[in-house]
Amino acid sequence: MRHGSPVPARAVQGQLSPLPRVRNLIAVGSGKGGVGKSTTAVNLALALAADGARVGVLDADVYGPSVPTMLGLSGRPDSPDGKSIEPMRAHGIEAMSIGLLVEADTPMIWRGPMATSALQQLLADTRWGGEDGLDYLLVDLPPGTGDIQLTLAQKIPVAGAVVVTTPQDVATLDARKALRMFEKVEIAVLGLVENMAQHVCTQCGHVDHLFGEGGGERMAAQYGVPLLGSLPLERGIREQGDAGVPVVASAPQSAAAQAYRAVAARLVEELSKRPRAAMPISASLL
């Protein structure tokens, strides 16, 4: 289905206003690498689109962009006027990444200011959503709490953030830093996502908590934020992401895809509790 009317823009941090073409920018962060943040961001974007929203993904990890691979994107985006960039499309969502503008094996040997400038330019120059704009733009952040995250907090209007972790204590310790960072810069934390929470044996159905159990739930309770859901550890999620057809697109009826859709629904529910943006976006700006 499609929405009968655009999703309302929600309030952002500080004195900023929502972007003209993006009603709600959602930051997806983590305290450390290797927790499946990019996989989570891409599949959540596809899950939101499956429910009828206009959705895009911005790959903000300029040093290690992975969104093009996960969405099966290749080639270069078009620039009809030599200034703005047309986002690329895959599986019903829009995407932009520094990885689409450089050769795959080219390292980004940039200092912090260059990386943050590239992020701002990608965000501002991309014609997100065409005439109608986007309901949601998920920004896949690099791990940690560095320059990119600081720029996001100071200069980019964020409707809310999602923190991805895995159940083990060492991961939740780092995720706490990401959560506290968002709180300190007055970005609303919509909730936690616990990735790789359990593995179900394909032969016997036995459930095994390989990385521990309940870490995300304990952290959510300690910091007073919602646990949006727990996602399984499945080989298919990794294989389908590597193949450029994420599980929500390739196997929409699977248990894994349904888990992502449940998390996306909770994300929308938490975002809807936020106050609407003080100045609604004019249709003439889109």
Number of helices: 9
CATH topology: Rossmann fold
* The CATH H-level homologous superfamily: P-loop containing nucleotide triphosphate hydrolases
Q: In the CATH classification, which architecture applies?
A: 3-Layer(aba) Sandwich
**Strand neighbour order, sheet with most strands:** 3-4-2-5-1-6-7-10
The pLDDT mean sits at: 83
Key features of this structure:
286 residues, alpha/beta, Rossmann fold, eight-stranded mixed sheet, two-stranded antiparallel ribbon, 10 strands, 15% strand
Overview of the molecule:
The protein has 286 residues and is an alpha/beta fold. The model is unreliable at 280-286 (pLDDT under 50). The strands form two sheets. It has an eight-stranded mixed sheet with strand order 3-4-2-5-1-6-7-10, sandwiched between helices. A two-stranded antiparallel ribbon has the order 8-9. It is globular, with a radius of gyration of 18 Å. It has helices spanning 37-50, 67-71, 112-125, 147-155, 169-184, 215-223, 235-242, 247-250, 255-272, and strands at residues 25-29, 55-59, 88-90, 93-97, 136-140, 160-165, 189-194, 199-200, 207-208, 227-230. Helix content is 34%, strand content 15%. The chain has one domain: 3-Layer(aba) Sandwich (Rossmann fold), CATH 3.40.50. Helix 1 (37-50) packs across helix 9. It contains nine helices and ten strands. It starts with 24 loop residues before the first strand and ends in a 14-residue tail after the last helix.
